[in-house]
Amino acid sequence: MSTIQAASNSTPSAAVSNPAPAMSTLRMWSAVVGSTLGAFMAVLNIQIVNASLADIQGAIGAGKDDGGWISTSYLIAEIVVIPLSGWLAQVFSLRKYLLTNAILFLLFSVACALATNLQQMIVLRAIQGFAGGVLIPMAFTIIITLLPKPKQPIGLALFALSATFAPAIGPTIGGYLTENYGWEFIFYVNLIPGALMVGLLWASLDRAPMKLGLLAKGDWPGIITMAIGLAALQTVLEEGNKEDWFGSDFIVRLSVVAAVSLALFLIIEFKTANPLLNLRLLARRNFGFGIVANVLLGIALYGSAFVLPIYLSRIQGYNSEQIGMVLAWTGIPQLLLIPLVPRLMKRFDVRLLIAVGFALFAASNLMNVHMTGDYASDQLFWPNVIRAIGQSLVFVPLSAIATAGIEQENAGSASALFNMMRNLGGAVGIASLQTFLTKREQFHSNILTNSVSVFEEATRDRVAKLTAYFMNHGVSDQAVATHKAVVAIALKLRKQANIMAFSDTFFLLGVALIVALLATLLLKKPGHLSGGGAH
């Protein structure tokens, strides 16, 4: 059995026996680069499609509410397959499993560009998500098992480009392609890097026989309950705000299904001899607290990538390309900084780097808590740059310290849990922020509306001035002009309430990141990460 093949085993009872000779350095790095390129494209495809969702909906005749399933179907399939990937790689061999899904991802990218209606797009996106979801944990598994410990930070830096850089740069690429070439090109853009990915994986991964007999020994009760539970939970999180949460029978039923299924999954995993995921890894200090910090990172990472485009569109009236240009400054600095992080890890305590990263990420959100109607691209520049620096400093050291000491037989479980929980944190973050944003807008709107009374001199004076303005600009009926004045004031109040709600949302993200910072203070430094003079 090859070294990588052994690494993909996700069951704690498995052991690595008779490992193949070590791979050459060229083949080893080809496998790492090829797999991380796949992970980058899989994550990029979430944000790049979200940035162009309105154009896709219009092209295939989807309504605003139903069009959300274009993204939801991808996310459901992705989060379900991530925890399955370690076991399936063992069953089908890592080479066959990873290459097959890489090729399927590219084929269904093209198919999505050719979709003509909503039903086709939802099905094709789900299959694309199922294939893309494989690429993320497999890249992580290859890095933490194939690379020597001193080289793992370099591999994790490459992986960080998919975890933090891809969500940041996705709206920029999506907006540019949609505005200049058409929405179909957000799917075609995968083809050239995808061909490189397939070539690198084909040349580097060891051939190994399939072990189809493991299908009969699989943890099928765990697989079924996990798949049902995660699919139901992801749907609740994606659709809950739109459906008024527990005011909807659909959401209530799905929530019950998710709760029951995931509770059964936890019971099964702790009782079965060969579980799908080794959940006992969560009891390890660094991995457990690393997961907590990773979930909060997912909330802030995907949450901020969700909130900023809405603000720029709703308040400033930016189109997708303009939004992308603003968000580019959360991505471009990462491309320059992430390659430097492994060197910083050699010089400084990795826990210090994580803490500084979370502190900067939190500060970037807290800088946005005093927003006004003039708060646009220029005012967002420095918060976005600081956010980019913070994200660059967090992911690689956090991944390294959380997975330090993970045995090869547990690599699949560790990879699945680490990546699944970050994605799940992102889903929870977006769902929570959607609701929080709505509720805070209603709160501020009520406060502002109650403070504006027709009995006040200032209000009557403002209405009179606006009425005169409309009368001087083509409105001949004074009653109509007065009505327009009142509507204009109401819209101004609504806009101000929205701005205040966005400020509150950024404050909440800052608090979440401070909590993540506190979780990192409980991490213990592993011996092989000996930066800053520790041994």
UniProtKB/TrEMBL annotation:
Major place of residence: membrane
UniProt-listed InterPro entries: EmrB-like (IPR004638), MFS (IPR011701), MFS_dom (IPR020846), MFS_trans_sf (IPR036259)
GO terms for cellular component: plasma membrane
Subcellular compartments: Cell membrane
Alphabetical list of Gene3D superfamilies matching this protein: MFS general substrate transporter like domains, Multidrug resistance protein D
Keywords from the named record: Cell membrane, Membrane, Transmembrane, Transmembrane helix, Transport
UniProt GO molecular function: transmembrane transporter activity
Residue intervals of the Major facilitator superfamily (MFS) profile domain: 31-528
Topological type in the membrane: Multi-pass membrane protein
Transmembrane segments: 28-49, 69-90, 97-116, 122-147, 154-173, 185-205, 212-233, 245-268, 289-311, 323-341, 348-368, 388-406, 501-523
Pfam families in alphabetical order: MFS_1
Family, similarity comment: Belongs to the major facilitator superfamily. EmrB family.
Protein's recorded name: EmrB/QacA family drug resistance transporter
